[in-house]
Amino acid sequence: MPVAAVLAGGIVGAVVATTFMGSSNEPPEVKIAAQAPQIAEKTPEQDQVQLEEKQTNVAVAAYAQPQAPTVEELTKTVSVGKGDTLMKVLTRAGADRSESHQAIAALTEVFDPRDLKIGQDVTLQFSTDDADLTKDSVVPSLMSVSLNEAVDRQLAAIRTPGAGFTAQETVLELDKSLVRAGGVIQNSLFLTAAQAGIPTKTIIDLIRIFSYDVDFQREIQPGDSFEVYFERFSDDTGRILKDGAIHWATMTLSGKEISVYRFKTADDGFTDYYDAKGRSVKKTLMRTPIDGARLTSGFGKRKHPTLGYTKMHRGVDFGARSGTPIMAAGNGVVEVAGRNGGYGNYVRIRHNGSYKTAYAHMKKFAKGVRKGSRVKQGQIIGYVGTTGRSTGPHLHYEVHRGGKQINPLSVKLPAGRKLGGKMLTAFREHSKKLNTEVANTALETQLASSD
Ligand SMILES: [Zn+2]
Question: Domain M23ase beta-sheet core, which positions (predicted)?
Fold first, then answer.
């Protein structure tokens, strides 16, 4: 069996259920549930519950039959919680301190313990093989520690009897395939795509790609449709492990079709999305720097919701749940990031000589967003909140041109790169090939889920 299949099937998890090397004739029927390595995230609370359950099982295995001790191998999987170090995780799982120390020392050859993530699973294997079986309580010794750094990269410290722990790195070879999926939009693109089984990451990428051209608050009508052609990676058992880049996508809005192609320009090495004519879909600024929000108040005169008098509203408001990520509408430098009176937590970005954008009432700023920091278009800069003079969670968004606020929804945005010459010729060849590829791939309206 190839290594990839062994790891994918979870050999560490299977050992407990199948190996029971009893020394007596009638081994006691004590079994530990097999625990395959998991990728799914867990909350620390869930982890705590799991841990307690497993500890109970271990106690049964170790102490239930002191009269007939047997050699056992047991596996425990523990999720990393907030504030955990590898040492804390291992000792919480019942590993001896000095054994844990040796295992961690070996593991650091292939893994930086600072890369440990909350929710990450760590699998420990124990054995009573070399323990003193004449004693009532048998303390199993640590045999291996393994964790998945990525879905396709497993790292482990494995004990060789008499030689301590050695590091091991296993890279799974993933099969790449391209999937064509799509549907007719019912209520929102997000919901329809999610119902079709399209992974969340792909939907967000899709919205980002089209957000320069499509105003998702106003332009989507029931009956509009979309298609997306993207990468999926699976192991050799066919299990989907991750999703990759979108190669092509199309949206049909009120009968009008917009298609985009992923293309790398050889002259500068940048990969971007272009329309059929070779124009970059990227505009200097995005119209809507937030996903899944609804426009609650437009630009212009209105009666102020909290103060009652008529006032000029110099931005647009997007209602969204508290904590919804807010993106930088364009590349630029953060000019202000801090408390700003009625605006609450406020960020202003300078994009170029004439354009700036501002974002108000944030719950908090994203990591690293402070005065002077450089941000990229689409980068998360903060989260929706209701700080300052605000009646509920929403984003107040402003576009400034030449120092004056203008309507973000009607502003004519300067376009991005337009391919010409050799680059356009190469793009035409590429897009023609992609069109044929897509046409030869069956459209799926219900995908098998990967998350
Ligand atoms: Zn506002």
Answer: 311-408
